[in-house]
Design brief:
Length: about 240
């Protein structure tokens, strides 16, 4: 079972991946963020893609989500794990925690968010009631349990436009809407994976309390980096434990 891993901030490469080849891909929707890195990780076939590019130069609103998902699909991956940094809103979603969310509210705009444009001559309305694949979620949670990592099962991911962080009032609104965590890259990535019929789930690493929470101080980039490094180590452990 070959798995695609989309790495976000804090995971631009996968240490321990035995690289077989790098593939520069082009798609009908343009170029993905980076070459695909094909290899094996603990005996499992893995294709890794750095969402923000190998030099972390592509901001969230300019990621070519369509090309990224298309490239993974074309490469024949059967499941996708999307790793991303998030801000925590609900109490349980504290910095350094991992979460496997089960719902999304999309606040992004002006992003190319479907493969089904008018030029394709086809209108499609995918079912998105449950935006993440139950099988991939269960798989991640089992690996986490196995590794002794207490990942949160569930939560609503609020996808914001970025690249700036949110205001305190925006986070209050997200909390009222029922969001538990907030990030900038979860959409349209998840919807495109569903359109491409790629089973997809999200492994979120809480890097900070969202704006105005956790004492209400301004967000410190050094602290975010620290929490993220800690959380991404746990993500690597989970990936090594995938059953
Ligand atoms: N907001 C949005 N995206 C993020 C955050 C945040 O607080 N932290 C990490 N990614």
């Amino acid at each position: 079972m070959s798995v695609g891993i989309i790495g976000g901030t804090g995971l631009t490469a996968l240490d321990g991946l035995e690289i077989h080849h790098r593939e520069v891909v082009s798609t009908p929707f343009g170029e993905p963020s980076a070459p695909l890195i094909h290899g094996t990780f603990r005996g499992r076939e893995v294709t890794f893609l750095a969402r923000h590019g190998e030099g972390h130069s592509v901001p969230p609103h300019q990621v070519n989500y369509r090309a990224n998902i298309w490239a993974l699909r074309q490469a024949g991956v059967e499941r996708v794990i999307a790793v991303a940094a998030v801000g925590g809103i609900s109490d349980a979603y504290a910095p350094r925690r991992l979460a496997i969310p089960d719902q999304i509210i999309d606040y992004t705009h002006s992003r190319a968010s479907t493969f089904y444009e008018q030029e394709q001559g086809q209108v499609a309305h995918i079912d998105f009631t449950y935006p993440y694949d139950a099988g991939v979620r269960a798989w991640l949670l089992e690996a986490a349990r196995d590794a002794g990592i207490d990942a949160i099962d569930g939560g609503t991911y609020g996808a914001t436009q970025g690249p700036r962080l949110e205001t305190a009032a925006e986070i209050r609104r997200l909390a009222q809407d029922g969001c538990d965590l907030v990030g900038m890259t979860g959409m349209p990535e998840a919807a495109l994976a569903r359109e491409a019929e790629l089973p997809y789930a999200h492994c979120a690493v809480v890097a900070n309390w969202a704006a105005g929470l956790g004492g209400g101080e301004e967000l410190s980039m050094d602290e975010i980096r620290d929490h993220l490094a800690y959380g991404m180590e746990a993500v690597r452990t989970i990936i090594t434990r995938l059953p």
